[in-house]
Design goal:
- About 80% of the residues lie in helices and about 0% in strands.
- The protein has about 120 residues and is mainly α.
- The protein has one domain: Histone, subunit A.
- Helix 2 packs across helix 3 and helix 3 crosses helix 4.
- The radius of gyration is 20 Å and the shape is extended.
- The N and C termini lie far apart (about 65 Å).
């Protein structure tokens, strides 16, 4: 009986941890995009990358969230994420993300104008 309880708790903890990770199918798909077409990616490699990427996202988001908290704001936005990337020393990512964010905003603005017509 004790073994059942312990294994149920272990399964629940594992499920909670997995809920905090990015979907492994998406991680695997992104990994395969950069590799040659005939390359295979092991389950262990996907899981390792899943944990690393999830930790990175959490790290950056936490920094952005701290900034918002200090500024007494409740919503983290794209500019906060870019600031956090730069603040944490990921300058190349900051620049790329800012370019992406600006293009995204331009497209959204154009889309909104077209919808209003």
């Amino acid at each position: 009986m004790v073994d059942n309880i312990g294994s149920n708790i272990d399964r629940e903890c594992l499920k909670e941890q997995q809920d905090q990770l990015l979907p492994i199918a998406n991680v695997g798909r992104i990994m395969k995009q950069i590799l040659p077409p005939n390359a295979k990616v092991s389950k262990e490699a996907k899981e390792t990358m899943q944990e690393c990427v999830s930790e990175f996202v959490s790290f950056v988001t936490g920094e952005a969230s701290d900034k918002c908290h200090k500024e007494k704001r409740k919503t983290v936005n794209g500019d906060d994420i870019c600031w956090a990337l730069g603040s944490l020393g990921f300058d190349d990512y900051d620049k790329s993300m800012r370019r992406y964010l600006n293009r995204y905003r331009e497209i959204e603005e154009r889309t909104m104008k077209e919808r209003m017509r």
